[in-house]
């Protein structure tokens, strides 16, 4: 079902090349100010065509609010926002109904929807649908900022390039973090951006693609958000995270590294600092028993490489039911990791808002 | 909220040392046969006290069905099952209200529930509550077995010990897999059990603990289960997985390894085998666009080391608000990974059943 | 929350004088044909300006499908449809923020939404929002018609004018019922339309208004739809019915008349007819224990008189917090009962569809 | 589905003659005091065997709290309470599988559950299951009382016996209302109890039964509870009300009388009293636009006559598929209206609590 949330309720709709995509956001308090400039800035971060290694499809991504908003404030009725799909190339998608694209949803989608799904541009499975999520996340982010809660993300890893972790920071380090929301290749460490840009351009040239790991942190959460069953903070964040196309894994705190160490190393020891209860390490990424501990909430997700590559690939021709060769042409992202970052921040903001209201 | 599911609805309740714990399972078709022997066998797999390295607390784990069951079949009314808590040591838990146990839920739970939560044995945060989930999973498993769907799990990794992956198998290999449900230390490879047992006994002796990685596979799924938004198969499985205490990460297919390879290596190429559409590799773990592809569904979760260790730890005394030392005595698991395995299988079965009905 | 449904999920949005209103319909099977002509005909039944006694505001009620629909069929993605608000008079609504209109939602809405709600035309509380529900209902109706299920409604009562009840018919009487969907004042008995028209015109002239009772019937339902707890068919129908502005009561079968008779008269006695189990009477309106019995599902709702009348009324001036006089001018319906009828049919169709899928 | 509620979540289970029935109540704030004496007093009001006209089956109705409660307070974990079924006569229910009881759920239940439902005592359809709802309602009532909210009900009508309406009272009249919770035949007017008792005894003697109308009022609600779509206060109350067996209609305020009057008579005119905004009449029963207005919330429900009567009835023998005669023997209520009253108060309290938290 395309709805999500308890206190905030999202209903997402749209297809990549249909009339429009959008989202209904219910549960926002009447009188909430919407900072349209902030929202535009935020959704602009997932726009393509800004870098040499992303697709050149340039959507304007202009939103139109249909309801729930008047004179700068929410009215208490559901906020519905839509994005018209304007820049859709009328290329022949019929071919894609025949030759299954590896790592795309084509095959299971065709079975599930009995061939009636809109396959153009990935249809409802398109990453473009996350534009609506990003809008909702921008709204949530603004509300959280009012409460002092801050969310950041950065690229933690692409192939051999590895950045520092947010786990090394016990609080927001504005000097280090301020650029994360500005850069199209956001790293905590200064020297990684250029190196990565060069790598991605090389990959794009070769017609290939690459994924990566995004780390996200949320600072200044109150203690006790979440539940043990079944809505642990980890459950809720992961539920939304895996709605983002290309996410294939998620870990909280040190995550999979918990299998490399002993309990005595894993345990985050409590101590008092300025009369506040903190832990010396933050291996758990700010969550224990499904509840926020007050330490920074830190998690990372892995993004698989963009499936669309211009290299020839073996596949199945489902019309003739025979093995065949697929050659995808057209504009593609060599790496969508930077464009997914605001989406990950968005789903974090939405989850936290749903818990905090 | 302690409810989960759309077509099946679970409501879980109970505390480790309260009167009883249990679960209400709604949505089972009337006339479903319950194989009580299979259920007992399944829940027995998460029982403690069977190995030298697990806690010696021996619960009998006897269930009592209160409703929804008559003459061997479900009646269509909600199935409520309870487990009485009998073997509860009356040790002094007051101390734990004062000295926060690292990596347990004590601190955020005390804040969230304003000190009213039942702290004995972890209360509602106890791993013991998963006993109810395991019962529900056993019921689901039996229904799925009728449809030819099979679920297995094994230990993928503990410290340096690493097992083969299910990803190497395109279908159920009964010879290799049949022991997985029998052994208390289930590996695909034959020679790992003894080695691991020795490791765990050594760790237990040292008063320490260890976590590990569990891999789970589900065979013979139909194509097209799941949704793109917001209930991808990955979303639903991860949501339940993170309700299991100690799970800190989840990855589907090769998961975090997607950040190490190029698109041309990551893409699972389609081909025809016996007129069926399959993929040469299964890097995506049987899920594309949130939908099952018909290839084996494979994922792994990481379990953090048992927080309760008998080594002295620094912590905070919240009564006197000062730094202090905690010494936990009593029976503990050196490694709960084997006991968590049936729980992971259970949540997989429940998720699949909720999709397939 | 502005969402409803289990197998079908509706998300409604919009305000009477905002940009647009609409609905997201999720859960429709991919490949469902939409008969746009039928839909237009159905939603046209709730349009104003067709009769001498309804408001002269003439909306065109043209819908635009934004997603989930392609080449005549649903795609499996959520179906989003919007209606732009074009014919909105720019009259001074500021006055209404000051003088509370009796029997409208003004006062509690102002408190709930802290004055931020869009008050123009009733905003989100406007009957106009049911246009979206009517669209959804038209879609549902078409799907049900395919399965042989038929839904009708008629005016059962306005002041002293009383029609026959559907309870007198054990099955669809096409001769009697075919006009119900055509007439703007639909009665089963032939001679009531003219009489009622005259009454309503007289009431309109006097600046007053009137309500009435609508009876709705659903034929050819399978046996066993619904549940005892908490989603009885009566629960589900009434839940949606009370979302329709002006509905203040609902009764199933003979409803409140059950307090006038003895058990021996109330009991619907079973008998066999053509090897089918039927009941001699249908006092229960086709529902027992919350489940459909296979007999016609019959219920009626009462609609209160349109609150907007042109007669002067006492009220409170909330700006100056003093008693004051309100004079409402402008176009109004003397009786909205005929316009509510398709909405009641719509919510019935939606409820049945949600149960039957 | 047997779950209900947003902020409070109820999961009900059990069958009349099974092991036990009960309810899981989730969402209660940790530290909520439970007044067990009040709860016992409240659930005792629905107990049978207290009057000459109710069934002589005397259940003890003793509850056992399994979880979520410790040292007089809720712990924050789900509260699970069960009632064991002890006083179940082992009479032959096989007969009832063959001869359909008119106005009971037997027939549609047998179809829905394919004959696997527990038919003894009505199984999951039994009014006895409302015992669990009554417990939950008693808890809710106590929480609401703390906030000054008071709920009362009385018998409004049985055959020709008619009581005053709560609509005549603008606030709680303690002198008049205090007996309503004590009497087994609660009327506002003093002289109706004896008369009704005589009537009911006469009906019981004749082997027949009777229904009636219950009116319920809720005082001191804040303004603005509820929503326009789809969770109007009327929607939520009616949803739960129709889960109570035998309820066949509900009306808010003057309800069906709205079809008898003009808008000028129907409109509740605002005025100021002690600087508070009130209405001169309360035809809307304290709800406008789905929201509470601050005036007393008043609604009434109709209860159909008890289906089980000792008079011979025609019916169908579904084993032999022939018309047959049914003679029900055993203990029955001549009128369940008094026993349903606390259940109606309970569902009101639960609805209000779900809105107010």
From TrEMBL, chains A, B, C, D:
Annotated InterPro entries: Chorismate_synth, Chorismate_synth_AroC_sf, Chorismate_synthase_CS
Cofactor(s) it depends on: FMNH2
Catalytic EC class: lyase
E.C. number: 4.2.3.5
The keyword Ligase is assigned to this record: no
Highest taxon of source: Bacteria
Known role: This reaction introduces a second double bond into the aromatic ring system.
Gene Ontology cellular-component terms listed: cytosol
Cofactor binding, note field: Reduced FMN (FMNH(2)).
Catalysis: reaction(s): 5-O-(1-carboxyvinyl)-3-phosphoshikimate = chorismate + phosphate
Biological process per Gene Ontology, one example term: amino acid biosynthetic process
Oligomer and partners: Homotetramer.
Taxon lineage: Bacteria, Fusobacteriati, Fusobacteriota, Fusobacteriia, Fusobacteriales
One Pfam family this sequence matches: Chorismate_synt
Protein name listed in UniProt: Chorismate synthase
Pathway(s) the chain acts in: Metabolic intermediate biosynthesis; chorismate biosynthesis; chorismate from D-erythrose 4-phosphate and phosphoenolpyruvate: step 7/7
Sites where the protein binds NADP(+): 46
GO MF annotation: an example: chorismate synthase activity
Similarity annotation: Belongs to the chorismate synthase family.
Natural source organism: Fusobacterium pseudoperiodonticum
Keywords: Amino-acid biosynthesis, Aromatic amino acid biosynthesis, FAD, Flavoprotein, FMN, Lyase, NADP
Gene3D superfamilies from the UniProt entry: Chorismate synthase AroC (3.60.150.10)
CDD domains (UniProt xref): Chorismate_synthase (cd07304)
Positions of FMN binding: 124-126, 289, 304-308, 331
């Amino acid at each position: 079902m395309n709805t999500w949330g308890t206190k905030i309720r999202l209903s997402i709709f749209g297809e990549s090349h249909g009339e429009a995509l959008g989202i209904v956001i219910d549960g926002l308090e009447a009188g909430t100010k919407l900072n349209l400039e902030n929202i535009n800035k935020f959704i602009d971060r997932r726009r393509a065509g800004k870098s040499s290694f992303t697709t050149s499809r340039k959507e304007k991504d202009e939103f139109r609010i249909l309801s729930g908003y008047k004179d700068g404030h929410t009215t208490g009725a559901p906020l519905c926002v839509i994005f018209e799909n304007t820049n859709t190339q009328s290329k022949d998608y019929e071919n894609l109904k025949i030759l299954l694209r590896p790592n795309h949803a084509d095959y299971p989608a065709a079975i599930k929807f009995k061939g009636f799904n809109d396959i153009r541009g990935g249809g409802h499975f398109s990453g473009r649908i996350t534009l609506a999520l990003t809008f909702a996340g921008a709204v949530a982010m603004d509300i959280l900022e009012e409460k002092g809660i801050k969310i950041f993300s950065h690229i933690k890893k692409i192939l051999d390039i590895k950045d520092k972790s947010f786990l090394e920071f016990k609080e927001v380090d504005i000097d280090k973090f301020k650029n994360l929301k500005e850069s199209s290749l956001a790293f905590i460490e200064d020297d990684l951006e250029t190196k990565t840009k060069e790598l991605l351009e090389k990959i794009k040239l070769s017609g290939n693609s690459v994924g990566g790991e995004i780390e996200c942190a949320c600072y200044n959460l109150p203690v006790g958000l979440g539940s043990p069953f079944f809505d642990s903070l980890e459950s809720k964040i992961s539920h939304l995270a895996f709605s983002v196309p290309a996410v294939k894994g998620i870990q909280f705190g040190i995550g999979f590294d918990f299998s490399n160490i002993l309990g005595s190393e894993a345990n985050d020891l409590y101590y008092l600092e300025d009369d506040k209860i903190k832990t010396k390490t933050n291996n758990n990424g700010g969550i224990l028993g499904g509840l926020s501990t007050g330490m920074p909430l830190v998690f990372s997700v892995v993004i698989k490489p963009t499936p669309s590559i211009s290299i020839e690939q073996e596949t199945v021709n489902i019309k003739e039911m025979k093995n065949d060769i697929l050659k995808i042409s057209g504009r593609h992202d060599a790496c969508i990791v930077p464009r997914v970052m605001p989406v990950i921040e968005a789903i974090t903001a939405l989850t936290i808002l749903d818990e905090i209201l």
